[in-house]
Design brief:
The complex is a heterodimer of chains A (255) and B (197). Chain A is α/β, with parallel strands linked by helices. Chain A has helices at residues 32-42, 63-72, 86-94, 104-108, 111-120, 157-167, 188-197, 211-221, 230-233, 239-248; strands spanning 5-13, 16-21, 24-30, 46-51, 77-80, 99-102, 125-134, 137-142, 151-156, 171-176, 202-205, 225-228. Chain B has an eight-stranded mixed sheet with strand order 2-1-3-4-14-13-12-9. A four-stranded mixed sheet of chain B has the order 6-5-7-11, covered by helices on one side. Chain B has a two-stranded antiparallel sheet with strand order 8-10. Chain B has helices at residues 13-22, 33-38, 50-58, 61-67, 77-80, 182-194, and strands at residues 3-6, 27-30, 41-44, 72-75, 83-86, 91-92, 97-103, 114-119, 121-122, 137-142, 144-145, 152-157, 161-168, 171-174. Chain B is globular. The chains are: A alpha/beta (255), B alpha/beta (197).
Chain lengths: 255, 197
């Protein structure tokens, strides 16, 4: 069995790591390359760099600072933010990303998933999904990087992740918006439902506030990985604390 | 040139180049058969799908790889391409190692691709894995696996045991990504760079 992965996400805005609550209001947390290295040293299994306003601003991430992070990092690196063409995805890989995560543009044009998978392989294609419960169903949202751009899409989360899988996604990151930044724990019910639809890895995102939350989501929703941003940035919880808690719950982690 | 990294379509070759740069190795990313044939050692990185990779190799690189007599390291798909045949796309490989690359079966407990850090089991002493111990973790991303046979020097497990690293003569392979496997991966790459030519 592979170990359960702990992923540190760097939410980047204007080249700086920021911390936000429910996608609104941001505080500067530091330099992406420095933070990525710190998390690597603390035992992160993977780093995601997420340019949170790229998609809403109709641009993609800055390849130069992507390469600056990739150059110093010796663990897997995924990038997200504004990747809306195959060429942009390839450019990310060529600047040192191992995987690209696509979200809003995939909802607009789902074939983007299969196009990237066809040239780079499914293992390079992560589909990020922002979802929250409205009127008894989990619904997907686009352009969540800024309060003024968020919009609901007609797609239901459970249908969309199955469609993304069929199109060749190698992994789904499900960001549960109701929990995001609140630190009350992952959305177990939503993640359980998503997990039942998938035969590709599922990554839990949104809601981590304590080491026990990671153990809970692995045990109860059987996700492959759990992602967190804010709690690691503030130093409230270290990646080492999380890994010890997950191992303490009887699960395999890389220590 | 110390290391020729084969440019083979789209993939995370930049990661491999950065890893070699961190180790101070002189490396060139190239698809030029002449430069590759002259290199001290060669890395065949993991990219895309087997069928697409073999099509690219058919453009003149296949013979260069087959005839290369100095250390050659295949990473991920690059290791799989060393074998006779791959179920992925049903294509013939380079035929440098006997046997067939087969698919991991996805189950509800074991999603595929196998994506993540898995423990290595060292089965045989080999210069490639010097300083790497059973229980050390390496990072894997793959849906197909190489057979366990007498070329296997390390295994890992995902529903079944598969070859995590192989070695025979001048040929080496690792199913995991040494360029993204932290200190363990750096050690493997350093071992490879230090192999006598």
């Amino acid at each position: 069995m592979p170990s359960k992965r702990i992923i540190a996400c760097l939410d980047v805005k204007a080249g700086r790591v920021v911390k936000g609550v429910r996608f609104e209001g941001h505080t500067d947390m530091g330099d992406p390359a420095e933070l990525a290295q710190r998390y690597r040293d603390e035992g992160a299994d993977e780093i995601v760099i997420y340019d949170i306003t790229a998609s809403a601003e109709r641009r993609t991430i800055d390849y130069d600072w992507l390469a600056r992070v990739a150059r110093v990092l010796d663990i897997p690196l995924a990038v997200a933010g504004g990747i809306r063409s195959c060429e942009q995805a390839i450019a990310c890989l060529e600047h040192g990303a191992d995987k690209v995560s696509i979200n809003s543009p995939a909802l607009e044009r789902p074939e983007l998933i299969s196009e990237i998978a066809a040239v780079a392989g499914s293992q390079c294609v992560v589909v990020g999904v922002d979802s929250r419960m409205i009127d008894g169903a989990w619904r997907t949202f686009q352009y969540t990087g800024a309060a003024e751009t968020i919009r609901r899409t007609p797609r239901l989360m459970l249908d969309w992740i199955a469609e993304a899988q069929e199109l060749g996604a190698g992994e789904i990151v499900l960001n549960c918006m109701d929990q995001d930044g609140v630190r009350g724990g992952y959305d177990i019910a939503q993640l359980q439902a998503a997990r039942e639809r998938l035969r590709i890895p599922l990554v839990a995102s949104g809601g981590a506030g304590a080491p026990s939350h990671f153990a809970d989501v692995f045990l109860q929703a059987d996700v492959s990985a759990a992602l967190a941003a804010g709690i690691f940035h503030s130093g409230a919880v270290s990646i080492g604390d999380v890994k010890r808690a997950v191992r303490g719950a009887g699960l395999e982690v890389r220590l | 040139m110390d290391v020729a990294v084969i440019k083979l379509g789209v993939g995370n070759t930049a990661s491999v180049m950065f890893a070699l740069e961190r180790l101070g190795a002189k490396a060139v990313l190239t698809d030029d058969p002449v430069r590759i044939a002259e290199a001290e050692r060669m890395i065949l990185p993991g990219v895309g799908a087997a069928a697409a990779a073999m099509r690219l190799l058919d453009g003149g690189l296949r013979d260069v790889l087959r005839e290369f007599s100095r250390p050659l390291l295949g990473i991920c798909l690059g290791q799989q391409l060393l074998y006779d045949y791959s179920q992925e796309g049903g294509v013939a490989g380079l035929g440098l190692l006997p046997g067939e690359v087969s698919a991991l079966e996805a189950t509800s407990q074991l999603p595929t691709p196998h994506m993540g850090w898995s423990a290595l089991q060292i089965d045989r002493e080999n210069a490639l894995l010097e300083g790497v111990n059973s229980g050390d973790y390496a990072y894997f991303v793959h849906s197909f696996v190489c057979p366990v046979d007498d070329a296997t020097v390390a295994t890992a497990d995902y529903g079944r045991a598969f070859s995590a690293a192989v070695a025979r003569g001048n040929l080496f392979g690792c199913q995991f990504h040494p360029e993204r496997s932290g200190a363990v991966g750096a050690r493997v790459l350093r071992n490879f760079i230090g192999l006598p030519c």
